[in-house]
Structure formats: C-alpha cells, structure tokens
Structure prediction request, 297 residues.
Amino acid sequence: MRRRPAGLVAVLLLVLIAACGARPEEPTVPSGTVRFASYDFPENQILVEVYAEAARRAGVPVAVQHGIGTREVVAPALQQEVVDVVVDYLGTALLFARPAFPDLPETPEGMHAVLSRTLGGRGVLVLDIAQAEDQNGFAVTKAFAAEHGVNQLSDLVPLAPDLVFGGPPECPDRPLCLLGLQEVYGLDFGKVISMPSRAATVEALLSGSIHVGLLETTDARLAVAPVKLLVDDLALQPRENVVPLVRAAVADRWGARLTDALDDTSALLTTGDLVQLNRWVELDGLTPEEAADRWWG
Prediction:
C-alpha cells in the first residue's frame, strides 16, 4: 500500500469544497447525445477524441466539449450530470475522489476496485483501464543534470533553494505536483513560476528561465528537446492508467453499445500510442480530432 502524505489530505479537501459550487456552463445538444468532456490540456483532449470516435463508430450520438476546466471543475460536472463521459487517469482520479483514503493500493487493479466502489455510489461507472499510462514528471535540461550530477528528484534537495520551478497554475495546490514535492521530497524551491503550457515549460527550461519544470511522461518533446525527466525515487506518483468514467444513467441507457466501445478502445491503447498521438499534435500540428482519426486509421 502507498501511504499518502498526511498534510496533503487537508489541502485537497479544501480544494474539493471550493469546487462544489462551481458548475460549468452546459452546452445545448440534442436529447440523447452522449457528452464527452476533456480537461484543459492537449493530451486529454486527444484521448477524449479517441474514445468519442469509438462511440460514434458504435452508432452512439456524441458531442465533445474541450477544455472546460481543471479537475476541480470537470470531475464535479460528471456527478452533476453536466457531462456524461470523462477520460481520466487512475491514480489522480482516485486521489481526488478519496482525499482522506489513508493508503493507495499499489496495483492498477487495486486502485480500480477502490475507485469503482467510490464513484459507483456517486452515479459514475468506472470502465476498464488501458495499458496506456501517463504520470506527472519533473524535467531539467540535460546540461543542468550533467553539471550538477542530478538524476533523481532527491538530488535536487540541496539545490532547491536556489532553483526556479515552473508548472501549471494549479500545481502549487496539487498533491502530485508542488505539494507532493515539498512534503515527500522536502523540495522548497526558491521561486515558483506559473507556466501557461507544456511547450512554454520546455522553452523556459531551455532559456534558463526555470531550472525544473513539470512535463508529463508521455510528452513528445522529451524525444526531441535536450531535457530529461528525473527519476521519482521516492514514488510520489501513483499508477496513472487511462480510464474512462461514464455516468451510470448514460451507461444504462446505451448499454453495451457504449461501454463495450470504450472498453475495446482501452484494450487497444498503449503508452506508445499516447506518445505518438501527442507527437502528432504537439510537433506535427494536427488537431486532437485529426490525431484521433489518424490513430483509428
């Protein structure tokens, strides 16, 4: 079992309470349409397009709404019946759904079981997990790593007071981002800068504006930019398999036509596919919809 840092629980509970009053604007769609919604970053938009296309191919009417917000907005929207399908990441979804759960299971299967029990009581069905996985990662330039002998996150501890960290706006409040780095690793950076995108994070690393930045482990830029992810040697990050979440009422209405289509997609999707999909969007300039169409062939 993975023990959660105790100080993170209270913070996440406060975030959840603040999010309860937030309700995104509901788009107008024909009755019976299954509403897919994405988080506000490109990979999740790609994943939603991949799964939405699977539903279309199964004859399910679909509407896609991209970038409606962060987890604090999107997750409650699913339970509030504003959206019907969210494509999530297993560990983060569980941590958000059960902030007071003392020990996270270490296996994807154990995490899936706990998440299914938790969300099932809230009217949400947790479908099969994919092999595809994407965790938070923390990157430095290869030159910085060589100069300072840095290969894992613990190596940053004596350097951190003189370093600048860059991450998304929500990072300071996230237990798997800056909060976790502080509590699990004891990393107290000298300065923290908000980054508008992962592309901006890479640019800031290369320009020296920041020394450490958040990049997901499937970011396509890792293969072409002179940056490297540091090893998460104290295992801050949980398993983050891709997993679709569907409102139970919608799953009941469409039955196996919808759920089988999504489960079959999860059975196909690999981490390598995620990297390739990200590459098509981040480096080749395709839209998330175009990348999903290319993946489906």
Notes: The radius of gyration is 19 Å.
